[in-house]
Amino acid sequence: MTEYTLTRSNRKTIGLYVKNGAMEVRAPLKMTKSEIDSFVASKEKWAKEKLAESCKLKEARKAFALSYGDAVIYRGASYPIAARLGMRVGFDGKVFYLPQGLAPDDIKYGAVQVYRLLAKRHLTERTAHFAGIMGVTPTAVKITGAKTRWGSCSTGKSINYSWRLVMADDEVIDYVVVHELAHITEMNHSGRFWAVVEKALPNYRELKTRLKELQKRLGSEDWD
Questions:
Q1: Is the pLDDT of residue 124 over 80?
Q2: What predicted TM-score, i.e. pTM, was given to this entire model?
Q3: Going by C-beta distance under 8 Å and a sequence separation of 6 or more, which residues neighbour residue 202?
Q4: Which of 76, 79, 200, 215 is nearest to 151 (CA)?
């Protein structure tokens, strides 16, 4: 049987989770060990497939590194990383430029700084654009290092975006912008909320699927 870690809690159902090459079972407090083992055995084929996939992603993330000449994506297009004299980092429309002589970890750090600058500019512009269309007024637009959320909207109407969002193409970026602005009107994911999103972006379902494809790609890249 596949090895797993067991976490018991005051839950009603049993669940199987695979992450970072390891499997965790979350079970109710009163469920017996034999019942848990039986459940795991019934999911053996699925678990092995997911573990293999998870281990592959873990190794890919471990091997992820950036060098001069490597390509990174911005707004859905690929651009090379180039070395330039001086200490400035930036994007000139053709390359992500960084100082010369940086180690791989410093190249990645420099690329993230460029992404943050680009994200602040582009996402602020798109937020203002759709805020006018949707008739809402966010109190602020902030760029964060969030890894699992593309964006969020606080109760104070402040919009937060992960810098990673600007890797997506323009239409997908706009979907996340509209999604978060819609929360100013509807702080939920009710039918009313999705109606607000659909009014601004009738094809939001397709864009939502494309966003998941980017999420899958980033699962094999270590940007931390």
A1: yes
A2: 0.83
A3: none
A4: 215
